[in-house]
Amino acid sequence: MYIHNGRFKQIYRLFFLFVCEAGIILQYAGMADKGDLRMLSCYYTVLSNILCFIYFAVLVIAQPKKENALIRGAVTMCIAVTGLVYHFMLNGFMGTAAGAGVPVTALSVSNILVHYAVPALVILDYFLFVPKGQYKAMYPLAWLVLPYAYFAFAMVRAEVSTRTFTGFGGTSRYPYPFLDVDLYGWDKVILIVLAVTVAFITLGYLSFVLDRLLGKKRKGRD
User: Fold this and answer.
1) Domains in the chain: how many in total?
2) Residue 67 in domain
3) Cα–Cα distances in Å, from 190 out to 86, 145, 160, 173?
4) C-alpha angle 177/178/183, rounded to 5°?
5) Does any domain span residue 58?
6) How far apart are the C-alpha atoms of 85 and 162, rounded to whole Å?
7) Helices (H), 2-43
8) Does some domain include residue 203?
9) Other Cβ atoms closer than 10 A to 121
10) Cα–Cα distance between 34 and 5 in angstroms, integer?
11) The whole model's pTM is what?
12) Per residue in 144-202, pLDDT tens?
């Protein structure tokens, strides 16, 4: 599917910006009583949502005739990981976090927005408005840059900063439990990262194949 209607595309993307902004604001509102809101900006979820907000804001303002497929894919994969990691690896920890004094209503709504609604809307935008057949074979490997940059950031921040995270019901130098070297040790954390990497690359090449198939189908219609 590829919709050429520019006005509908703009309306959709403005709606996306509203949803994304609401999710980010509610994340900060839900954590306001925890004290240091700057720590929230160290979470991959928040950073990936901010990245999507900036990217789509640029699309709405600039209205480019053609998007850069490498960047578009990187943004899409980046936010897709947000949803998948939350759903399969972090969802069980949120009840613990809620029990630690975080307002349940604000976090529940914001978690749905930033972990489910935003990834779904970004992916749907690709299906509706992005010409298919633009991805290249090496793109899925290039898309690893953003997740690995975050991993490096999380590890370095843990070593140089004295501030700790309390978002999952405990205190840690690391933003996410599966990155907690103090808890699991480097061996287990590296294995987890490798497993996530394999899943990411697999998802990336599935996206590449799907993009190629949809591109061929569109050319067949033309």
Assistant:
1) 1
2) yes
3) 19, 17, 20, 17
4) 65
5) yes
6) 26
7) 6-30
8) yes
9) 20
10) 45
11) 0.88
12) 999 999 999 999 999 998 888 876 767 889 999 899 999 999 999 999 999 999 999 99
